[in-house]
Write a structure and sequence with these properties.
CATH superfamily of the largest domain: Vaccinia Virus protein VP39
Radius of gyration: 22 Å
Order of helices and strands: EEEHEEEHHEHEEEHEHEHEHEHEHEE
Helix content: 25-40%
CATH topology of the largest domain: Rossmann fold
Strand content: 25-35%
Bound molecules: S-adenosyl-L-homocysteine
Strand order of the largest sheet: 13-12-11-14-15-17-16
Distance between the termini: 43 Å
Largest sheet: 7 strands, mixed
Number of strands: 17
Number of helices: 10
Structural class: alpha/beta
Number of domains: 3
CATH architecture of the largest domain: 3-Layer(aba) Sandwich
Amino acid sequence: MLSGAVARVEGPAEPGAWSCVRSAEGEVLAYGHLSPHSRIRVRLLAFGKEPPASDLIEARIASAVAGRADSALLADTDSVRLVNSEGDALPGLVADRYGDLVVVKLTSAGMAARRDEVASALRRATGAASGFERTDAAAARREGFAVNQGALWGRVPEAPIAICERRRRYLVDFADGQKTGFYLDQRDARDLVESLASGRRVLDLFAYTGGFGVAAGRGGAASVTAVDSSARALELARQNLADNAPDCAVRFESADAFEFVRQRADCFELLVIDPPPLARRRRDVTRAARAHKDVLLFGLRRAAPGAFVLAFCCSHHIGPELFRKIAFGAALDADRSVRVLRTLGPPADHPVSIDHPEGHYLTGLLLQA
Ligand code: SAH
Protein backbone atom coordinates (compact mmCIF):
# COMPACT_ATOMS: atom_id res chain seq x y z
CA MET A 1 0.00 0.00 0.00
CA LEU A 2 1.64 3.24 -1.15
CA SER A 3 2.15 6.23 1.13
CA GLY A 4 -0.16 8.41 -1.00
CA ALA A 5 -3.10 6.16 -0.06
CA VAL A 6 -2.53 6.64 3.68
CA ALA A 7 -4.34 9.62 5.24
CA ARG A 8 -2.99 9.07 8.74
CA VAL A 9 -1.30 6.57 11.01
CA GLU A 10 -2.85 6.16 14.45
CA GLY A 11 -1.03 4.87 17.49
CA PRO A 12 2.64 3.97 17.78
CA ALA A 13 4.36 3.77 14.40
CA GLU A 14 7.16 1.31 15.13
CA PRO A 15 8.92 0.07 11.96
CA GLY A 16 7.59 -3.37 11.12
CA ALA A 17 4.63 -3.29 13.53
CA TRP A 18 1.41 -5.05 12.58
CA SER A 19 -0.98 -2.37 11.35
CA CYS A 20 -4.67 -2.50 10.66
CA VAL A 21 -5.68 -0.75 7.42
CA ARG A 22 -9.06 0.96 7.48
CA SER A 23 -11.11 2.61 4.76
CA ALA A 24 -12.00 6.31 4.99
CA GLU A 25 -15.27 5.12 6.61
CA GLY A 26 -13.37 3.21 9.29
CA GLU A 27 -14.04 -0.28 7.95
CA VAL A 28 -11.20 -2.78 8.47
CA LEU A 29 -9.76 -3.78 5.09
CA ALA A 30 -6.49 -5.58 5.75
CA TYR A 31 -3.49 -6.07 8.00
CA GLY A 32 0.14 -5.59 7.20
CA HIS A 33 3.61 -4.58 8.34
CA LEU A 34 4.27 -0.87 8.69
CA SER A 35 7.24 0.72 6.93
CA PRO A 36 7.11 4.30 8.25
CA HIS A 37 10.00 5.54 6.08
CA SER A 38 9.16 3.81 2.82
CA ARG A 39 7.04 4.82 -0.15
CA ILE A 40 5.42 1.40 0.27
CA ARG A 41 3.97 2.33 3.64
CA VAL A 42 2.29 -0.99 4.50
CA ARG A 43 3.19 -4.46 3.23
CA LEU A 44 -0.20 -6.17 3.18
CA LEU A 45 -0.22 -9.73 4.50
CA ALA A 46 -3.84 -10.45 5.36
CA PHE A 47 -6.99 -9.16 3.70
CA GLY A 48 -10.36 -8.86 5.44
CA LYS A 49 -11.58 -8.12 8.94
CA GLU A 50 -9.98 -11.05 10.76
CA PRO A 51 -6.71 -10.16 12.49
CA PRO A 52 -3.83 -12.36 11.28
CA ALA A 53 -3.08 -15.53 13.25
CA SER A 54 0.03 -15.31 15.40
CA ASP A 55 1.74 -18.04 13.34
CA LEU A 56 0.85 -16.51 9.95
CA ILE A 57 4.44 -16.05 8.79
CA GLU A 58 5.56 -19.45 9.97
CA ALA A 59 2.57 -21.14 8.30
CA ARG A 60 3.17 -19.32 5.00
CA ILE A 61 6.84 -20.22 5.01
CA ALA A 62 5.96 -23.87 5.68
CA SER A 63 3.46 -23.90 2.84
CA ALA A 64 5.87 -22.20 0.40
CA VAL A 65 8.60 -24.72 1.20
CA ALA A 66 6.21 -27.70 0.98
CA GLY A 67 4.93 -26.45 -2.41
CA ARG A 68 8.44 -26.60 -3.85
CA ALA A 69 9.17 -30.00 -2.37
CA ASP A 70 6.38 -31.78 -4.25
CA SER A 71 6.48 -29.79 -7.49
CA ALA A 72 7.24 -31.89 -10.56
CA LEU A 73 8.43 -28.71 -12.27
CA LEU A 74 11.27 -28.44 -9.78
CA ALA A 75 12.61 -31.96 -10.00
CA ASP A 76 16.27 -32.77 -10.40
CA THR A 77 17.81 -29.71 -8.81
CA ASP A 78 19.17 -29.11 -5.33
CA SER A 79 18.62 -25.35 -5.64
CA VAL A 80 15.29 -23.54 -5.72
CA ARG A 81 13.69 -20.31 -4.61
CA LEU A 82 11.76 -21.28 -1.48
CA VAL A 83 10.03 -17.97 -0.84
CA ASN A 84 9.35 -15.41 -3.56
CA SER A 85 8.11 -12.40 -1.62
CA GLU A 86 4.61 -11.26 -2.71
CA GLY A 87 4.36 -14.36 -4.92
CA ASP A 88 4.22 -16.44 -1.74
CA ALA A 89 2.18 -13.87 0.22
CA LEU A 90 5.32 -12.94 2.17
CA PRO A 91 6.26 -9.45 0.98
CA GLY A 92 9.75 -8.44 2.00
CA LEU A 93 11.11 -11.99 2.14
CA VAL A 94 13.17 -13.91 -0.39
CA ALA A 95 14.75 -17.25 0.48
CA ASP A 96 16.81 -19.39 -1.89
CA ARG A 97 17.98 -22.89 -1.19
CA TYR A 98 21.41 -23.95 -2.44
CA GLY A 99 21.85 -27.57 -1.41
CA ASP A 100 21.99 -27.61 2.36
CA LEU A 101 22.20 -23.83 2.71
CA VAL A 102 19.32 -21.33 2.75
CA VAL A 103 20.16 -17.75 1.73
CA VAL A 104 17.71 -15.15 3.00
CA LYS A 105 17.13 -11.61 1.83
CA LEU A 106 14.94 -9.29 3.89
CA THR A 107 13.70 -6.20 2.13
CA SER A 108 11.03 -4.74 4.44
CA ALA A 109 11.05 -3.33 7.95
CA GLY A 110 8.41 -5.93 8.86
CA MET A 111 10.52 -8.92 7.88
CA ALA A 112 13.72 -7.39 9.30
CA ALA A 113 11.94 -7.00 12.64
CA ARG A 114 11.00 -10.71 12.48
CA ARG A 115 14.40 -12.01 11.44
CA ASP A 116 14.51 -14.66 14.20
CA GLU A 117 10.98 -15.87 13.55
CA VAL A 118 11.70 -16.10 9.81
CA ALA A 119 14.99 -17.94 10.36
CA SER A 120 13.54 -20.51 12.73
CA ALA A 121 10.52 -21.11 10.43
CA LEU A 122 12.83 -21.67 7.45
CA ARG A 123 15.06 -23.92 9.46
CA ARG A 124 12.14 -26.02 10.65
CA ALA A 125 10.46 -26.22 7.24
CA THR A 126 13.59 -27.12 5.27
CA GLY A 127 15.76 -29.03 7.73
CA ALA A 128 18.69 -27.29 5.97
CA ALA A 129 22.01 -27.41 7.79
CA SER A 130 22.63 -23.67 7.69
CA GLY A 131 21.07 -20.32 6.93
CA PHE A 132 22.74 -17.13 5.80
CA GLU A 133 21.40 -13.59 5.56
CA ARG A 134 22.46 -11.47 2.61
CA THR A 135 22.59 -7.75 3.13
CA ASP A 136 20.26 -5.73 1.00
CA ALA A 137 21.82 -2.35 1.67
CA ALA A 138 19.40 -0.43 -0.56
CA ALA A 139 16.37 -1.96 1.17
CA ALA A 140 17.86 -1.34 4.61
CA ARG A 141 18.38 2.32 3.77
CA ARG A 142 14.93 2.70 2.28
CA GLU A 143 13.18 0.91 5.13
CA GLY A 144 15.38 2.15 7.95
CA PHE A 145 16.69 -1.13 9.38
CA ALA A 146 20.25 -2.13 10.21
CA VAL A 147 22.10 -4.31 7.71
CA ASN A 148 22.98 -7.69 9.07
CA GLN A 149 24.96 -10.01 6.83
CA GLY A 150 25.97 -13.33 8.30
CA ALA A 151 24.91 -16.70 9.66
CA LEU A 152 21.29 -17.18 10.73
CA TRP A 153 21.79 -20.75 11.93
CA GLY A 154 24.22 -23.63 11.65
CA ARG A 155 27.76 -23.58 10.37
CA VAL A 156 27.73 -21.65 7.09
CA PRO A 157 30.18 -23.08 4.54
CA GLU A 158 32.82 -20.97 2.81
CA ALA A 159 31.67 -19.35 -0.42
CA PRO A 160 31.53 -20.41 -3.19
CA ILE A 161 29.50 -23.57 -2.74
CA ALA A 162 28.72 -26.21 -5.36
CA ILE A 163 25.17 -26.80 -6.54
CA CYS A 164 23.71 -29.18 -9.09
CA GLU A 165 20.79 -28.36 -11.36
CA ARG A 166 19.65 -30.90 -13.94
CA ARG A 167 23.20 -32.36 -14.04
CA ARG A 168 24.74 -28.89 -14.49
CA ARG A 169 27.16 -28.08 -11.71
CA TYR A 170 27.79 -24.51 -10.61
CA LEU A 171 29.85 -22.74 -8.02
CA VAL A 172 27.74 -20.11 -6.29
CA ASP A 173 29.16 -17.12 -4.47
CA PHE A 174 26.25 -16.67 -2.08
CA ALA A 175 28.16 -14.21 0.11
CA ASP A 176 29.25 -11.62 -2.47
CA GLY A 177 27.69 -12.60 -5.80
CA GLN A 178 24.68 -10.94 -7.37
CA LYS A 179 21.16 -11.50 -6.04
CA THR A 180 21.63 -14.38 -3.60
CA GLY A 181 24.53 -15.65 -5.72
CA PHE A 182 22.85 -17.31 -8.68
CA TYR A 183 20.06 -16.61 -11.17
CA LEU A 184 17.67 -19.35 -10.16
CA ASP A 185 15.01 -17.58 -12.22
CA GLN A 186 16.74 -18.64 -15.45
CA ARG A 187 16.56 -22.40 -14.79
CA ASP A 188 13.95 -23.14 -17.49
CA ALA A 189 15.82 -20.96 -19.96
CA ARG A 190 19.04 -22.84 -19.17
CA ASP A 191 17.22 -26.10 -19.99
CA LEU A 192 16.15 -24.54 -23.28
CA VAL A 193 19.69 -23.41 -24.12
CA GLU A 194 21.06 -26.85 -23.31
CA SER A 195 18.52 -28.41 -25.68
CA LEU A 196 19.37 -26.01 -28.54
CA ALA A 197 23.15 -25.75 -28.28
CA SER A 198 24.42 -28.85 -30.06
CA GLY A 199 27.07 -27.99 -32.66
CA ARG A 200 26.42 -24.26 -32.38
CA ARG A 201 28.78 -21.41 -31.67
CA VAL A 202 27.25 -19.77 -28.62
CA LEU A 203 27.52 -16.20 -27.36
CA ASP A 204 26.65 -15.77 -23.67
CA LEU A 205 26.30 -12.01 -23.38
CA PHE A 206 26.09 -10.67 -19.80
CA ALA A 207 27.30 -14.10 -18.75
CA TYR A 208 27.82 -13.52 -14.99
CA THR A 209 29.11 -16.89 -13.69
CA GLY A 210 28.28 -18.74 -16.90
CA GLY A 211 24.77 -19.99 -16.16
CA PHE A 212 23.90 -20.18 -19.87
CA GLY A 213 27.43 -20.93 -21.06
CA VAL A 214 27.52 -24.07 -18.92
CA ALA A 215 24.12 -25.16 -20.26
CA ALA A 216 25.40 -24.63 -23.81
CA GLY A 217 28.62 -26.53 -23.08
CA ARG A 218 26.65 -29.42 -21.61
CA GLY A 219 24.38 -29.38 -24.66
CA GLY A 220 27.34 -29.91 -26.99
CA ALA A 221 28.03 -26.36 -28.21
CA ALA A 222 30.88 -26.05 -30.70
CA SER A 223 32.17 -23.06 -28.72
CA VAL A 224 31.11 -20.73 -25.94
CA THR A 225 32.06 -17.05 -25.76
CA ALA A 226 31.17 -15.52 -22.39
CA VAL A 227 31.15 -11.73 -22.07
CA ASP A 228 30.70 -9.79 -18.84
CA SER A 229 32.06 -6.58 -17.36
CA SER A 230 32.86 -8.35 -14.08
CA ALA A 231 36.20 -10.17 -14.16
CA ARG A 232 35.34 -11.76 -10.82
CA ALA A 233 32.11 -13.27 -12.19
CA LEU A 234 33.98 -14.52 -15.25
CA GLU A 235 36.51 -16.28 -13.06
CA LEU A 236 33.69 -18.43 -11.65
CA ALA A 237 32.33 -18.85 -15.19
CA ARG A 238 35.72 -20.19 -16.23
CA GLN A 239 35.72 -22.72 -13.39
CA ASN A 240 32.12 -23.70 -14.08
CA LEU A 241 32.78 -24.33 -17.77
CA ALA A 242 35.97 -26.26 -17.10
CA ASP A 243 34.06 -28.51 -14.71
CA ASN A 244 31.03 -29.10 -16.92
CA ALA A 245 32.35 -29.03 -20.46
CA PRO A 246 36.13 -29.51 -20.39
CA ASP A 247 36.28 -30.23 -24.13
CA CYS A 248 34.28 -27.23 -25.30
CA ALA A 249 36.22 -24.34 -26.91
CA VAL A 250 35.64 -21.43 -24.53
CA ARG A 251 36.52 -17.75 -24.55
CA PHE A 252 35.99 -15.25 -21.75
CA GLU A 253 35.85 -11.55 -22.47
CA SER A 254 35.85 -9.08 -19.65
CA ALA A 255 34.27 -6.28 -21.64
CA ASP A 256 31.32 -3.98 -22.06
CA ALA A 257 28.73 -6.17 -23.75
CA PHE A 258 27.17 -3.29 -25.68
CA GLU A 259 30.58 -2.48 -27.17
CA PHE A 260 31.41 -6.13 -27.76
CA VAL A 261 28.47 -6.76 -30.09
CA ARG A 262 29.04 -3.47 -31.86
CA GLN A 263 32.71 -3.99 -32.54
CA ARG A 264 33.25 -7.68 -33.15
CA ALA A 265 32.72 -9.40 -36.44
CA ASP A 266 32.30 -12.88 -34.91
CA CYS A 267 29.34 -14.98 -35.95
CA PHE A 268 27.19 -17.19 -33.70
CA GLU A 269 24.37 -19.69 -34.13
CA LEU A 270 22.96 -19.24 -30.62
CA LEU A 271 23.03 -15.94 -28.75
CA VAL A 272 21.84 -15.35 -25.20
CA ILE A 273 21.40 -11.70 -24.28
CA ASP A 274 20.61 -11.26 -20.59
CA PRO A 275 21.37 -7.71 -19.43
CA PRO A 276 20.89 -6.44 -15.87
CA PRO A 277 17.71 -4.48 -15.10
CA LEU A 278 17.93 -1.39 -17.30
CA ALA A 279 14.65 0.23 -16.15
CA ARG A 280 14.42 0.20 -12.38
CA ARG A 281 12.06 3.17 -12.46
CA ARG A 282 9.28 4.03 -14.82
CA ARG A 283 11.08 7.14 -16.02
CA ASP A 284 13.98 4.95 -17.23
CA VAL A 285 11.78 3.02 -19.66
CA THR A 286 12.54 5.01 -22.82
CA ARG A 287 16.28 4.92 -22.27
CA ALA A 288 16.17 1.22 -21.33
CA ALA A 289 14.07 0.35 -24.38
CA ARG A 290 16.72 1.99 -26.56
CA ALA A 291 19.52 0.05 -24.86
CA HIS A 292 17.62 -3.24 -25.26
CA LYS A 293 16.99 -2.45 -28.90
CA ASP A 294 20.64 -1.57 -29.51
CA VAL A 295 22.08 -4.68 -27.98
CA LEU A 296 19.58 -6.85 -29.84
CA LEU A 297 20.15 -5.01 -33.11
CA PHE A 298 23.91 -5.51 -32.95
CA GLY A 299 23.39 -9.04 -31.62
CA LEU A 300 21.32 -9.81 -34.73
CA ARG A 301 24.21 -8.61 -36.88
CA ARG A 302 26.37 -11.27 -35.18
CA ALA A 303 23.72 -13.94 -35.77
CA ALA A 304 24.23 -16.53 -38.52
CA PRO A 305 21.25 -17.26 -40.80
CA GLY A 306 18.80 -19.41 -38.83
CA ALA A 307 20.48 -18.57 -35.52
CA PHE A 308 18.54 -18.67 -32.28
CA VAL A 309 18.56 -15.50 -30.20
CA LEU A 310 17.31 -15.71 -26.64
CA ALA A 311 16.83 -12.16 -25.38
CA PHE A 312 15.77 -11.19 -21.89
CA CYS A 313 14.44 -8.17 -20.10
CA CYS A 314 14.22 -8.21 -16.31
CA SER A 315 12.38 -4.96 -15.56
CA HIS A 316 8.70 -5.21 -14.74
CA HIS A 317 8.21 -1.81 -16.41
CA ILE A 318 8.96 -3.48 -19.74
CA GLY A 319 6.48 -6.33 -20.16
CA PRO A 320 6.24 -8.98 -22.89
CA GLU A 321 4.26 -6.77 -25.26
CA LEU A 322 6.68 -3.85 -25.15
CA PHE A 323 9.67 -6.19 -25.31
CA ARG A 324 8.27 -7.76 -28.49
CA LYS A 325 7.93 -4.28 -29.99
CA ILE A 326 11.55 -3.57 -29.07
CA ALA A 327 12.59 -6.80 -30.79
CA PHE A 328 10.53 -5.80 -33.81
CA GLY A 329 12.41 -2.48 -34.00
CA ALA A 330 15.75 -4.23 -33.70
CA ALA A 331 14.86 -6.74 -36.43
CA LEU A 332 13.71 -3.93 -38.72
CA ASP A 333 16.92 -1.96 -38.25
CA ALA A 334 19.08 -5.07 -38.61
CA ASP A 335 17.17 -5.89 -41.78
CA ARG A 336 16.53 -9.45 -40.60
CA SER A 337 13.24 -11.26 -40.69
CA VAL A 338 12.84 -12.56 -37.21
CA ARG A 339 10.28 -15.00 -35.83
CA VAL A 340 9.25 -15.32 -32.20
CA LEU A 341 9.32 -19.01 -31.34
CA ARG A 342 8.54 -18.76 -27.65
CA THR A 343 7.91 -16.25 -24.88
CA LEU A 344 9.40 -17.13 -21.53
CA GLY A 345 8.59 -16.00 -18.02
CA PRO A 346 9.79 -16.88 -14.56
CA PRO A 347 9.90 -20.56 -13.54
CA ALA A 348 7.56 -22.32 -11.09
CA ASP A 349 9.56 -21.44 -7.97
CA HIS A 350 9.12 -17.73 -8.78
CA PRO A 351 5.32 -17.47 -8.57
CA VAL A 352 3.64 -14.12 -9.16
CA SER A 353 0.64 -13.10 -7.08
CA ILE A 354 -2.40 -12.24 -9.15
CA ASP A 355 -2.74 -9.16 -6.87
CA HIS A 356 0.81 -8.06 -7.53
CA PRO A 357 1.52 -8.03 -11.27
CA GLU A 358 4.70 -6.00 -10.64
CA GLY A 359 6.18 -9.30 -9.45
CA HIS A 360 6.36 -10.40 -13.09
CA TYR A 361 9.73 -8.87 -13.96
CA LEU A 362 11.30 -11.43 -16.28
CA THR A 363 10.46 -11.74 -19.97
CA GLY A 364 12.40 -13.81 -22.46
CA LEU A 365 11.91 -14.10 -26.20
CA LEU A 366 13.27 -17.01 -28.17
CA LEU A 367 13.79 -15.60 -31.64
CA GLN A 368 14.99 -17.17 -34.83
CA ALA A 369 16.78 -14.85 -37.19
N1 SAH B 1 23.07 -14.38 -17.60
C1 SAH B 1 23.46 -14.42 -16.21
C2 SAH B 1 22.91 -13.28 -15.40
C3 SAH B 1 23.25 -11.93 -15.93
S1 SAH B 1 23.07 -10.68 -14.76
C4 SAH B 1 23.03 -15.73 -15.59
O1 SAH B 1 22.09 -16.34 -16.11
O2 SAH B 1 23.61 -16.13 -14.60
C5 SAH B 1 23.75 -9.32 -15.58
C6 SAH B 1 25.24 -9.37 -15.76
O3 SAH B 1 25.59 -8.27 -16.59
C7 SAH B 1 26.07 -9.21 -14.49
O4 SAH B 1 26.96 -10.28 -14.37
C8 SAH B 1 26.85 -7.90 -14.69
O5 SAH B 1 28.19 -8.01 -14.22
C9 SAH B 1 26.84 -7.78 -16.18
N2 SAH B 1 26.93 -6.42 -16.73
C10 SAH B 1 26.30 -5.29 -16.34
N3 SAH B 1 26.55 -4.29 -17.18
C11 SAH B 1 27.36 -4.80 -18.15
C12 SAH B 1 27.94 -4.27 -19.35
N4 SAH B 1 27.73 -3.00 -19.70
N5 SAH B 1 28.70 -5.08 -20.10
C13 SAH B 1 28.91 -6.37 -19.75
N6 SAH B 1 28.36 -6.93 -18.66
C14 SAH B 1 27.59 -6.15 -17.87
